[in-house]
Amino acid sequence: MNILLVLAFLFYVGSIFGWVLELFFRRIITKNGKWINPGFLVGPYLPLYGFGLCILFLMASGEAYFPAMPDYLKKIILFILMAVMMTIIEYIAGVIFIKHMKVELWNYSNEWGNIDGIICPKYSLFWAILGAVYYFFIHPHILSALAWLSDNLAFSFFVGMFYGLFIIDFVYSAQLLVKIRQFAKENEIIVRFEELKLNIIQFAEEKKKKRKHFRFFFALSPDIPLSEHLKRYNEAKKKLEDDIKKIIKKK
């Protein structure tokens, strides 16, 4: 099968399943009682995991080209390389959003050994574990799925439909990010994307706004202008910082 079609299919699968994984992971670790749509896109997909699955597939498929060595050592090196590659992808994505878009999608500042709050050893270890899980439990099924796809190329229509929606979503979400970036630069702040979404959802619930079932996906399309929510978010952020300073002074 054409390698471009293979990678397009893997990106499609990885983006969707990665979104599901991140959704439950964030729900468990944040414990804020809210389901927050992860990532910067509206739809149920995360490009980071799409690229990640493509990388893991290529690396797992390239194991045969490793130099002669014991099988266990080969796998250890493979999982380390997977973790390194995923960490690099994570760092590039973090730099693009935090340094250039002034938007923070995650924050590892409190983790030991972190670099710019974007990557850290703890989550690199998680990537290594995820790479091992992929190799032993997912890669064989991916190979089976690709074999099925080669016999059922009509399914590529749905893959193409995914990319059509993905492009529309990307353009729409990018326009929102430009507005957020402009506000962040004017106020010299970094906008924590998940906090902003949670702030908008809570505000809508307090005001008993309609379209509740749309808030999960369209948190950044509120009934009042995004600029107003950004102002309120910034005010709440400053108030929290002032409260923390007062507590520190009292101590």
Description:
It is a single chain. Helices cover 71% and strands 2% of the residues. It is mainly alpha-helical and 251 residues long. It has one domain. Strands 1-2 form a two-stranded parallel ribbon. Helix 1 (3-30) crosses helix 2 and helix 1 (3-30) crosses helix 5. The chain is globular, with a radius of gyration of 21 Å. It starts with a helix and ends with a helix.
Round the Cα radius of gyration to an integer and report it. 21 Å
Q: If helices are DSSP runs of H or I spanning 4 or more residues, what is the number of helices? A: 8
- Summing up helix and strand content along with how strands pair, one would put the structural category as mainly alpha
- Count of beta strands: 2
Termini Cα gap: 66 Å
**Per DSSP, what share of the residues sits in E-state strands of 2 or more residues?**
under 5%
Instruction: Catalogue the unreliable spans.
Output: none
Largest sheet descriptor: 2 strands, parallel
Q: Structurally, how many domains make up the residues?
A: 1
Helix content: over 70%
| Average predicted confidence as pLDDT | 86
Give the overall form. globular
Q: Give the ordered list of helices and strands.
A: HHHEHHEHHH
Biggest sheet strand order reads: 1-2
